[in-house]
TrEMBL record:
This is Uncharacterized protein. It comes from Dyadobacter beijingensis.
């Protein structure tokens, strides 16, 4: 999305004059409409995933998501700016520990380390900082795999008892670092547990 904005901005000017092909107001309206379409498309994907699984396997927190994210932040994130909630978690992990680096193709195998009978917090990041948006779900590993298939941003998986939070950090290349916050051992470091 950020790359699209840059390209469209390059094609614009304040008046649509010689250097720009489109007036800036037209470009801004296009960007706003594109953002709305992306949000609508995401919701459509989530709705499709939701009908594939039992309600207990995929819980969408429509009203209490801010409290869940606040609790996760208080446990695992260093908040430098109280006005910027639920963003830029990657660079603000408390006591970050790199578990290991994996390839993108191995993400599904890592999810298999989670207990199939347990639900986990899953936080997906949409967009680029500072305007990125984080969405939290309460789901089983099989649903996590479906969410990964439709998501392109960073992914966080956390224990529902708030013992640990692991980021699958998206990078430019094929390498995905698994970075942990929390003092307890994670299933990514040992066998599965609830």
């Amino acid at each position: 999305m950020a790359q699209l904005h840059a390209v469209v901005q390059d094609l614009s000017s304040d008046d649509g004059g010689e250097l720009g092909l489109l007036p800036r107001d037209t470009v801004n309206a296009y960007i706003h409409a594109e953002s709305n379409l992306c949000a609508m498309y995401w919701q459509e994907k989530i709705d499709r995933i939701g009908i594939q699984f039992a309600q207990a396997d995929f819980i969408r927190h429509f009203t209490d998501w801010p409290e869940i994210l606040k609790t996760l932040e208080s446990c695992f994130i260093i908040k430098c700016d109280l006005n910027s909630r639920f963003s830029n978690w990657s660079e603000q992990f408390k006591s970050p520990t790199v578990i290991r680096n994996i390839s993108r193709e191995d993400i599904s195998a890592e999810i298999d380390r989670l207990d199939n009978n347990c639900n986990y917090w899953v936080i997906l990041v949409h967009g680029d900082y500072p305007t990125s948006k984080q969405v939290v779900y309460d789901c089983k590993p099989i649903v996590i795999k479906s969410l990964i298939e439709v998501s392109v941003g960073d992914l966080f998986i956390g224990d529902k008892k708030y013992n640990w939070l692991v980021q699958f950090q998206q990078t430019e290349g094929n390498t995905v670092p698994l970075v942990k916050s929390g003092k307890h051992e994670t299933p990514f470091e040992k066998g599965s547990y609830c």
